[in-house]
Design a protein that fits this description.
Elements (H helix, E strand, L loop, with lengths): L10 E5 L2 H14 L4 E5 L6 H9 L4 H4 L2 E7 L4 H14 L17 E7 L8 H8 L5 H16 L6 H11 L8 H6 L11 H8 L2
Parallel strand pairs: 1-2, 1-3, 3-4
Helix pairs in contact: 2-4, 5-7
Protein backbone atom coordinates (compact mmCIF):
# COMPACT_ATOMS: atom_id res chain seq x y z
CA UNK A 1 0.00 0.00 0.00
CA UNK A 2 1.35 3.46 -0.83
CA UNK A 3 2.02 5.59 2.23
CA UNK A 4 0.33 9.02 2.32
CA UNK A 5 2.73 11.85 1.64
CA UNK A 6 3.19 14.62 4.16
CA UNK A 7 0.08 16.80 4.12
CA UNK A 8 0.90 20.17 2.61
CA UNK A 9 -2.48 21.42 1.32
CA UNK A 10 -5.93 21.82 2.93
CA UNK A 11 -7.72 19.86 0.21
CA UNK A 12 -6.74 16.23 -0.26
CA UNK A 13 -7.59 14.42 -3.50
CA UNK A 14 -7.17 10.67 -3.11
CA UNK A 15 -7.03 8.77 -6.41
CA UNK A 16 -6.52 5.24 -7.66
CA UNK A 17 -3.00 4.68 -8.95
CA UNK A 18 0.09 6.63 -9.90
CA UNK A 19 -1.04 7.37 -13.45
CA UNK A 20 -4.31 8.82 -12.15
CA UNK A 21 -2.31 10.93 -9.70
CA UNK A 22 -0.36 12.53 -12.54
CA UNK A 23 -3.50 12.95 -14.66
CA UNK A 24 -5.45 14.72 -11.94
CA UNK A 25 -2.47 16.92 -11.14
CA UNK A 26 -2.37 18.01 -14.77
CA UNK A 27 -6.14 18.59 -14.84
CA UNK A 28 -6.01 20.69 -11.66
CA UNK A 29 -3.23 22.82 -13.18
CA UNK A 30 -5.24 23.15 -16.40
CA UNK A 31 -8.22 24.39 -14.38
CA UNK A 32 -6.08 26.78 -12.34
CA UNK A 33 -7.16 25.18 -9.06
CA UNK A 34 -4.77 25.51 -6.13
CA UNK A 35 -4.67 24.27 -2.56
CA UNK A 36 -5.24 20.65 -3.63
CA UNK A 37 -2.76 17.85 -2.93
CA UNK A 38 -3.17 14.66 -4.97
CA UNK A 39 -2.45 11.40 -3.16
CA UNK A 40 -2.26 7.90 -4.68
CA UNK A 41 -3.99 5.24 -2.57
CA UNK A 42 -2.87 2.37 -4.79
CA UNK A 43 -5.35 -0.31 -5.78
CA UNK A 44 -9.03 -0.52 -4.85
CA UNK A 45 -8.40 -2.92 -1.97
CA UNK A 46 -5.85 -0.58 -0.41
CA UNK A 47 -8.12 2.44 0.09
CA UNK A 48 -9.23 1.49 3.59
CA UNK A 49 -5.72 1.13 4.94
CA UNK A 50 -4.60 4.29 3.18
CA UNK A 51 -7.41 6.38 4.70
CA UNK A 52 -6.67 5.06 8.19
CA UNK A 53 -3.05 6.19 7.90
CA UNK A 54 -4.03 9.51 6.31
CA UNK A 55 -6.55 10.15 9.09
CA UNK A 56 -3.85 10.03 11.79
CA UNK A 57 -1.16 11.80 9.77
CA UNK A 58 0.44 14.95 11.19
CA UNK A 59 -1.41 18.08 10.01
CA UNK A 60 -4.60 16.18 9.12
CA UNK A 61 -6.81 17.54 11.91
CA UNK A 62 -5.12 20.93 11.91
CA UNK A 63 -5.00 21.55 8.17
CA UNK A 64 -7.36 19.38 6.10
CA UNK A 65 -10.77 20.87 5.28
CA UNK A 66 -11.86 18.43 2.58
CA UNK A 67 -11.07 15.02 1.14
CA UNK A 68 -12.14 13.95 -2.33
CA UNK A 69 -11.94 10.28 -3.27
CA UNK A 70 -11.89 9.11 -6.89
CA UNK A 71 -12.41 5.43 -7.74
CA UNK A 72 -13.20 3.50 -10.90
CA UNK A 73 -16.62 1.90 -11.13
CA UNK A 74 -15.17 -1.06 -13.04
CA UNK A 75 -18.13 -3.43 -13.57
CA UNK A 76 -20.48 -2.00 -10.91
CA UNK A 77 -20.65 1.66 -9.90
CA UNK A 78 -22.91 1.02 -6.90
CA UNK A 79 -20.61 -1.67 -5.52
CA UNK A 80 -17.59 0.59 -6.01
CA UNK A 81 -19.28 3.37 -4.05
CA UNK A 82 -20.24 0.99 -1.23
CA UNK A 83 -16.63 -0.18 -1.09
CA UNK A 84 -15.49 3.44 -0.68
CA UNK A 85 -18.11 3.98 2.04
CA UNK A 86 -16.80 0.98 3.92
CA UNK A 87 -13.26 2.34 3.71
CA UNK A 88 -14.40 5.75 4.99
CA UNK A 89 -16.35 4.23 7.87
CA UNK A 90 -13.41 2.07 8.84
CA UNK A 91 -11.18 5.14 8.96
CA UNK A 92 -13.64 7.09 11.13
CA UNK A 93 -14.45 9.60 8.41
CA UNK A 94 -17.88 10.94 7.32
CA UNK A 95 -19.71 8.72 4.84
CA UNK A 96 -21.68 10.42 2.02
CA UNK A 97 -25.13 9.10 1.18
CA UNK A 98 -24.29 8.98 -2.52
CA UNK A 99 -21.55 10.00 -4.95
CA UNK A 100 -21.10 13.73 -5.49
CA UNK A 101 -22.96 14.53 -2.27
CA UNK A 102 -20.43 16.10 0.17
CA UNK A 103 -20.76 15.01 3.79
CA UNK A 104 -19.34 16.35 7.04
CA UNK A 105 -17.18 19.25 8.09
CA UNK A 106 -13.54 19.31 9.10
CA UNK A 107 -13.10 17.46 6.84
CA UNK A 108 -15.83 17.42 4.24
CA UNK A 109 -15.85 14.16 2.27
CA UNK A 110 -16.91 13.79 -1.35
CA UNK A 111 -16.73 10.73 -3.63
CA UNK A 112 -16.50 10.50 -7.41
CA UNK A 113 -17.02 7.13 -9.08
CA UNK A 114 -15.76 7.13 -12.65
CA UNK A 115 -16.88 7.45 -15.36
CA UNK A 116 -20.08 9.09 -14.07
CA UNK A 117 -21.19 7.49 -10.77
CA UNK A 118 -23.71 5.24 -12.56
CA UNK A 119 -22.04 3.58 -15.56
CA UNK A 120 -19.53 0.70 -15.51
CA UNK A 121 -16.07 1.85 -16.54
CA UNK A 122 -13.05 3.78 -15.37
CA UNK A 123 -10.92 6.86 -15.94
CA UNK A 124 -10.06 5.56 -19.41
CA UNK A 125 -13.78 5.59 -20.25
CA UNK A 126 -13.86 9.33 -19.59
CA UNK A 127 -10.76 9.85 -21.72
CA UNK A 128 -12.33 7.93 -24.59
CA UNK A 129 -15.43 10.13 -24.41
CA UNK A 130 -13.17 13.17 -24.63
CA UNK A 131 -11.44 11.98 -27.82
CA UNK A 132 -14.47 10.25 -29.38
CA UNK A 133 -14.57 12.69 -32.32
CA UNK A 134 -10.91 12.22 -33.21
CA UNK A 135 -10.73 10.59 -36.70
CA UNK A 136 -8.17 8.06 -35.46
CA UNK A 137 -10.85 6.38 -33.31
CA UNK A 138 -12.27 4.81 -36.48
CA UNK A 139 -8.84 3.34 -37.16
CA UNK A 140 -8.70 1.94 -33.63
CA UNK A 141 -12.12 0.32 -34.07
CA UNK A 142 -10.92 -1.29 -37.29
CA UNK A 143 -7.74 -2.48 -35.59
CA UNK A 144 -9.65 -4.11 -32.73
CA UNK A 145 -12.08 -5.78 -35.15
CA UNK A 146 -9.05 -7.20 -36.93
CA UNK A 147 -7.61 -8.41 -33.63
CA UNK A 148 -10.88 -10.18 -32.86
CA UNK A 149 -10.99 -11.78 -36.29
CA UNK A 150 -7.41 -13.00 -36.06
CA UNK A 151 -7.41 -14.17 -32.43
CA UNK A 152 -11.05 -14.94 -31.73
CA UNK A 153 -11.19 -12.57 -28.78
CA UNK A 154 -10.80 -8.98 -27.69
CA UNK A 155 -8.60 -7.53 -24.92
CA UNK A 156 -9.99 -8.15 -21.45
CA UNK A 157 -10.04 -4.45 -20.64
CA UNK A 158 -11.30 -2.67 -23.71
CA UNK A 159 -11.12 0.93 -22.41
CA UNK A 160 -7.45 0.50 -21.50
CA UNK A 161 -6.71 -1.15 -24.85
CA UNK A 162 -8.48 1.64 -26.75
CA UNK A 163 -6.68 4.39 -24.83
CA UNK A 164 -3.32 2.73 -25.36
CA UNK A 165 -4.03 2.38 -29.08
CA UNK A 166 -5.09 6.02 -29.25
CA UNK A 167 -1.94 7.19 -27.47
CA UNK A 168 0.15 5.04 -29.81
CA UNK A 169 -1.14 7.24 -32.65
CA UNK A 170 0.17 10.49 -31.13
CA UNK A 171 3.44 12.24 -32.05
CA UNK A 172 5.05 10.86 -28.87
CA UNK A 173 3.58 7.36 -28.63
CA UNK A 174 3.51 5.34 -25.46
CA UNK A 175 3.09 8.13 -22.91
CA UNK A 176 1.16 7.19 -19.74
CA UNK A 177 -2.21 8.90 -19.41
CA UNK A 178 -1.05 11.65 -17.09
CA UNK A 179 1.89 12.61 -19.25
CA UNK A 180 -0.28 12.34 -22.37
CA UNK A 181 -2.65 14.86 -20.78
CA UNK A 182 0.28 17.19 -20.13
CA UNK A 183 1.32 16.80 -23.77
CA UNK A 184 -2.14 17.96 -24.88
CA UNK A 185 -3.32 14.63 -26.29
CA UNK A 186 -6.45 14.14 -24.17
CA UNK A 187 -8.58 17.22 -24.95
CA UNK A 188 -8.87 18.58 -21.41
CA UNK A 189 -11.39 21.20 -22.54
CA UNK A 190 -13.84 18.52 -23.72
CA UNK A 191 -17.33 18.50 -22.11
CA UNK A 192 -16.59 14.87 -21.24
CA UNK A 193 -14.67 16.16 -18.21
CA UNK A 194 -17.43 18.48 -16.96
CA UNK A 195 -18.54 16.16 -14.15
CA UNK A 196 -14.97 15.60 -13.02
CA UNK A 197 -14.27 19.32 -13.07
CA UNK A 198 -17.38 20.11 -11.03
CA UNK A 199 -16.24 17.56 -8.45
CA UNK A 200 -12.79 19.14 -8.26
CA UNK A 201 -14.21 22.65 -7.98
CA UNK A 202 -16.40 21.51 -5.07
CA UNK A 203 -13.48 20.22 -3.00
Amino acid sequence: MPVPREITEPKQLVVEGGDAKVFFGVLLDHMGLTGVQVQDFGGKDELGGFLKVLRIAPNFERMVISVGIVRDAETNAAAAFQSVCGALSGAGLPVPAQPLMPMGHGPQINVLILPDAATPGMLETVLLRAVSNDPVMECIDQYLRCVEQQTGSLPGNMPKAQVQAFLASRPRPGLPMGHAARAGYLCLDSPAYDGVKQFLQAL
